TrEMBL record:
<feature type="domain" description="ACT">
    <location>
        <begin position="30"/>
        <end position="105"/>
    </location>
</feature>
<dbReference type="InterPro" id="IPR004789">
    <property type="entry name" value="Acetalactate_synth_ssu"/>
</dbReference>
<dbReference type="GO" id="GO:0003984">
    <property type="term" value="F:acetolactate synthase activity"/>
</dbReference>
<comment type="pathway">
    <text>Amino-acid biosynthesis; L-isoleucine biosynthesis; L-isoleucine from 2-oxobutanoate: step 1/4.</text>
</comment>
<dbReference type="InterPro" id="IPR054480">
    <property type="entry name" value="AHAS_small-like_ACT"/>
</dbReference>
<comment type="similarity">
    <text>Belongs to the acetolactate synthase small subunit family.</text>
</comment>
<dbReference type="Pfam" id="PF22629">
    <property type="entry name" value="ACT_AHAS_ss"/>
</dbReference>
<dbReference type="InterPro" id="IPR045865">
    <property type="entry name" value="ACT-like_dom_sf"/>
</dbReference>
<comment type="pathway">
    <text>Amino-acid biosynthesis; L-valine biosynthesis; L-valine from pyruvate: step 1/4.</text>
</comment>
<keyword id="KW-0100">Branched-chain amino acid biosynthesis</keyword>
<comment type="function">
    <text>Catalyzes the conversion of 2 pyruvate molecules into acetolactate in the first common step of the biosynthetic pathway of the branched-amino acids such as leucine, isoleucine, and valine.</text>
</comment>
<dbReference type="InterPro" id="IPR019455">
    <property type="entry name" value="Acetolactate_synth_ssu_C"/>
</dbReference>
<keyword id="KW-0028">Amino-acid biosynthesis</keyword>
<comment type="subunit">
    <text>Dimer of large and small chains.</text>
</comment>
<dbReference type="InterPro" id="IPR039557">
    <property type="entry name" value="AHAS_ACT"/>
</dbReference>
<dbReference type="InterPro" id="IPR002912">
    <property type="entry name" value="ACT_dom"/>
</dbReference>
<keyword id="KW-0808">Transferase</keyword>
Length: 186
């Protein structure tokens, strides 16, 4: 599978893309942006979103090429097809941006998120929290007499489901990394 690379100023429309670009239905898209790892780049990318009123559902960034000083920014956002195309085009025009990939339209991808959940409780609620964590394959990474901290990795929907089940059992705090994503295949 070939990756979609948006060159500065180039359009990413395809004759095989049958979605209506003028649709008003919002869609969730995961964008992977390869940038120079230098001061101010993240602020410029995020400024593009805030300056135009686009929302970010999830954001992760880390250096992925130490010798080339490049970082990968993964952004999950929502918008109509027209808005998503506009976001991709505008990202492609920012000078330290090298590549913009829309993993949602490029084909199958793998998305994962790490979450830490603190659940405070005693007695039966404590035991139930342990049972649910086992079902979700969450690991206990800290334990006191009053609480557990569970670590879970999976699709964002899996973390949402665990949080929903842990709330009545004493979910008192939560930290989530945001989505990390890669396209499948070559």
């Amino acid at each position: 599978m070939s990756a979609l690379k948006i060159e500065r100023g180039a359009s990413s429309h395809s004759a095989y893309d049958l979605r209506d670009p003028h649709s008003s239905v919002e869609e969730k898209h995961t964008l992977a942006v390869l940038v120079d790892n230098e001061a101010g780049v993240l602020a410029r990318v995020i400024g593009l979103f805030s300056g135009r009123g686009y929302n970010i559902d999830s954001l992760t960034v880390a250096e992925v090429d130490h010798s080339g000083h490049r970082s990968r920014i993964t952004v999950v956002t929502r918008g109509t097809p027209q808005v998503i195309e506009q976001i991709k085009a505008q990202l492609g025009r920012i000078i330290p941006v090298h590549e913009v990939h829309d993993l949602t339209v490029e084909g199958p991808s793998v998305e994962r998120e790490l979450g830490l959940f603190k659940v405070a409780g005693t007695g039966e609620k404590r035991l139930e929290a342990l049972r649910i964590a086992e079902i979700f394959r969450a690991k206990v990474v800290d334990s006191t007499l009053q609480s557990f901290v569970f670590e879970i990795t999976g699709a964002p929907e899996k973390l949402d489901a665990l949080a929903e089940l842990m709330r009545p059992l004493g979910l008192s705090d939560m930290a989530r990394t945001g989505v990390a994503a890669l396209s499948r295949g070559i």
